[in-house]
C-alpha cells in the first residue's frame, strides 16, 4: 500500500523529498568534518561526544514529551523498553564512541567510506543469525565494497605519517559500523511498533545517559570547560549532523520511500570527500575517488538485493 502511495506522489512532493534526502545525507556527512575541526583544540573524543549529546538532548526530549508520544510510551511493554535501552546503547552510544575514536587517526573521507560499509554487515549478520544465503550478486557487491576500502586505505597510507595509526583508526570505525549494523538488525520490528523518529529519540536519550555516566566515571567534569569553538562544533554536530538529518530523513521517506532514500544517501561519501578537501585541506587522489565509487556501487547493489 505504501509503495503505491509513493508511486503516485505528485512531482512537487517527490522533489521536496529528494531535496530533504540530500540535505540529510549532507548533514550526516558533515559530522566527521566538525569532529576533525574540534580535534584541532586537543579535545578528547569522549568529551566531544558528551558535548554533542548534551546539546542534542533538548531536541530529543521535545520529540518524546509531546502528548501523543507520552500516550504511546505508556503502552510500551517492559520488553520494548529493554530493547530501546539495548539498541540505543549499541546503535548510538557504542557506534558514536567508536567513530569518534577512529577519527583521531584517519581522514574524514576514509572514515565515511568505512562507516558506509554497515549495509554489508547487516547482510553478513543476516547470514550468521538467520541463515540467509548470499547470492552471486551480493558476493560481487561485497567484493566491490571491500576493494574500494582497500584503495581508500592506500590513499591514507600515502598521505599520513603512521600506517599503524591508520589501521587502528580503521579498526575503530569498523567497530562503529558493526555496532550500527547490529542496531539496524534488531530494530526492524521495533520501528514498526513505535515509529522510526520516536525510536531514534528514545535511543538517543538512553545513549546520552550512557555517555554521561561514562564521562562522569572516567573524566573530571572540568573537562567540559573547552574553548568556545569546541562548543560551536559540538552544537553544530548536535543540530546539523544529528537532529535535523533524522527529521529530514524521515520526512523524505514519506515522500519518496525508503528505497529512493537509500539511493540518495549514497551521496554521503562523496559529500564528505569534497568537504574534507574544501574545509580541511585533505588531499584527494584518483585512488580515493576510485575507492569511493567502488564502495558506493557495492552498497547500491546490497540495498537493491531481492
Explain how this protein is built.
The chain crosses the membrane at residues 18-39, 51-70, 82-107, 113-131, 138-154, 166-187, 199-218, 230-249, 261-280, 286-303. Pfam families: EamA. It contains 13 helices and no strands. With 306 residues, it is mostly helical. It has one domain (2-303). Helix 2 (11-39) crosses helix 6, helix 3 (45-64) runs antiparallel to helix 10 (196-218) and helix 6 runs antiparallel to helix 8.
Helices and strands, with pairings:
Blueprint: H1 2-7, H2 11-39, H3 45-64, H4 67-74, H5 78-102, H6 108-115, H7 118-130, H8 136-159, H9 163-194, H10 196-218, H11 228-265, H12 268-280, H13 286-303
Helix pairs in contact: 2-6, 2-11, 2-12, 3-5, 3-10, 3-11, 5-9, 5-10, 6-8, 6-9, 6-12, 7-9, 8-13, 9-10
Transmembrane segments: 18-39, 51-70, 82-107, 113-131, 138-154, 166-187, 199-218, 230-249, 261-280, 286-303
Subcellular location: Membrane
Pfam families: EamA (PF00892)
Distance between the termini: 18 Å
Q: Figure out the total of helices.
A: 13
Structural class by SSE content: mainly alpha
Order of helices and strands: HHHHHHHHHHHHH
Reported for the largest beta sheet, the result is: none
Number of β-strand runs: 0
Family: Belongs to the EamA transporter family.
Organism: Microvirgula aerodenitrificans
Transmembrane segments: 18-39, 51-70, 82-107, 113-131, 138-154, 166-187, 199-218, 230-249, 261-280, 286-303
Subcellular location: Membrane
Amino acid at each position: 500500500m505504501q509503495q503505491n502511495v509513493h508511486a503516485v506522489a505528485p512531482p512537487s512532493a517527490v522533489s521536496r523529498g529528494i531535496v530533504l534526502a540530500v540535505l540529510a545525507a549532507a548533514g550526516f556527512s558533515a559530522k566527521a568534518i566538525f569532529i576533525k575541526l574540534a580535534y584541532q583544540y586537543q579535545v578528547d573524543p569522549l568529551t566531544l561526544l558528551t558535548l554533542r549529546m548534551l546539546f542534542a538532548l533538548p531536541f530529543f526530549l521535545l520529540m518524546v514529551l509531546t502528548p501523543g508520544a507520552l500516550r504511546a510510551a505508556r503502552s510500551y511493554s517492559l520488553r520494548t523498553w529493554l530493547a530501546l535501552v539495548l539498541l540505543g546503547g549499541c546503535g548510538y552510544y557504542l557506534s558514536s564512541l567508536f567513530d569518534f575514536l577512529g577519527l583521531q587517526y584517519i581522514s574524514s573521507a576514509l572514515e565515511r567510506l568505512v562507516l558506509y560499509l554497515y549495509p554489508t554487515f547487516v547482510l553478513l549478520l543476516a547470514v550468521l543469525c538467520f541463515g540467509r544465503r548470499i547470492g552471486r550478486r551480493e558476493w560481487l557487491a561485497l567484493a566491490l565494497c571491500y576493494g574500494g576500502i582497500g584503495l581508500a586505505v592506500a590513499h591514507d597510507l600515502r598521505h599520513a605519517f603512521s600506517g599503524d595509526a591508520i589501521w587502528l583508526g580503521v579498526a575503530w570505525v569498523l567497530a562503529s559500523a558493526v555496532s550500527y549494523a547490529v542496531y539496524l538488525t534488531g530494530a526492524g520490528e521495533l520501528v514498526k511498533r513505535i515509529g522510526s523518529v520516536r525510536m531514534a529519540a528514545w535511543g538517543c536519550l538512553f545513549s546520552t545517559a550512557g555517555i554521561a555516566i561514562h564521562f562522569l566515571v572516567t573524566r573530571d567534569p572540568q573537562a567540559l570547560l573547552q574553548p568556545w569553538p569546541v562548543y560551536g562544533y559540538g552544537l553544530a554536530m548536535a543540530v546539523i549532523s544529528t537532529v535535523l538529518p533524522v527529521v529530514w530523513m524521515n520526512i523524505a521517506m514519506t515522500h519518496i520511500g525508503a528505497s529512493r532514500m537509500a539511493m540518495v544517501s549514497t551521496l554521503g561519501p562523496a559529500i564528505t570527500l569534497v568537504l574534507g578537501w574544501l574545509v580541511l585541506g585533505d588531499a584527494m587522489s584518483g585512488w580515493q575517488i576510485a575507492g569511493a565509487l567502488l564502495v558506493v556501487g557495492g552498497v547500491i547493489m546490497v540495498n537493491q538485493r531481492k
